Amino acid sequence: MGPNILHSIYAFVYFMTVGAVSFVLLGEVSTPLLRAKTTALATAVQAVFGIAMNVAVPYMVNPDEANMKGKVGFVFGGCAAVGTIVSWVYIPELKGRTFEEIDIMFSTRVPPRHMGSYQIG
């Protein structure tokens, strides 16, 4: 298989799994009053981190620079571990909630981890 086919397969798998998750979360989890600002901020932060990674990764794997070889996996594994913990703490469970209920929980400052079991009223 050529590189174009492999890239297409990778892109398909990425966007069918984790690639679209951030935009789904932005649309569903943010309070409706701040949804546009939240999406704009998240998109800008993602772009900045994307640029940083596109600059840093070639230096990490280059034999004349950091020469990390397979140890680059530890960098990405560490980032994934941090991301998992942050997600568990800050991404609320909002299954079956209306926008009004979400706004009430945000305004009463219910911790995101407790939003799934929070009883309104």
From TrEMBL:
<dbReference type="GO" id="GO:0016020">
    <property type="term" value="C:membrane"/>
</dbReference>
<dbReference type="InterPro" id="IPR050360">
    <property type="entry name" value="MFS_Sugar_Transporters"/>
</dbReference>
<feature type="transmembrane region" description="Helical">
    <location>
        <begin position="6"/>
        <end position="27"/>
    </location>
</feature>
<keyword id="KW-0812">Transmembrane</keyword>
<dbReference type="Pfam" id="PF00083">
    <property type="entry name" value="Sugar_tr"/>
</dbReference>
<dbReference type="InterPro" id="IPR036259">
    <property type="entry name" value="MFS_trans_sf"/>
</dbReference>
<keyword id="KW-0472">Membrane</keyword>
<feature type="transmembrane region" description="Helical">
    <location>
        <begin position="39"/>
        <end position="60"/>
    </location>
</feature>
<feature type="transmembrane region" description="Helical">
    <location>
        <begin position="72"/>
        <end position="91"/>
    </location>
</feature>
<protein>
    <recommendedName>
        <fullName>Major facilitator superfamily (MFS) profile domain-containing protein</fullName>
    </recommendedName>
</protein>
<keyword id="KW-1133">Transmembrane helix</keyword>
<dbReference type="GO" id="GO:0005351">
    <property type="term" value="F:carbohydrate:proton symporter activity"/>
</dbReference>
<dbReference type="InterPro" id="IPR005828">
    <property type="entry name" value="MFS_sugar_transport-like"/>
</dbReference>
